[in-house]
Amino acid sequence: MRQRRCMENGVAMAAVNQSSNTEDEGLRLNQDLVEQINELVYGEHAASECWSPAKPVLVEGLLWSALGATLWLVVLYLAS
């Protein structure tokens, strides 16, 4: 914790530790976020049924993306 001294009036004044409190709160919030993400990825939630419909949706999304990229390349080829 840093202290700022005011020499203009000859009185040493400790700076408000608001910045260090903000940093501490930021670190606490970051740690809390990491714990929540780890719980989602590795915890019981990852093994639950709510993740089961995700695979077909991801596969379909990747297939549509591949089809779109292929179509885009064909159009670029035909336009040139």
General shape? elongated
Structural domain tally: 2
- How does the helix and strand content classify structurally? mainly alpha
Give a short account of the largest sheet: none
Oligomer: single chain
| SSE order | HH
Query: How many individual β-strands?
Result: 0
Average pLDDT taken over every residue: 75
What proportion of the residues is helical, as a percent range? 55-70%
Name the features.
elongated; 80 residues; mainly alpha; single chain
Summarize the structure.
It is built from two helices and no strands. It has helices at 18-42, 54-79.
Topology:
Blueprint: H1 18-42, H2 54-79
Molecular structure report:
The N and C termini lie far apart (64 Å). The model is unreliable at 1-16 (pLDDT under 50). The chain has 80 residues and is mostly helical. It is 64% helix and 0% strand. It folds into two domains: 1-47; 49-80. It has helices at 18-42, 54-79.
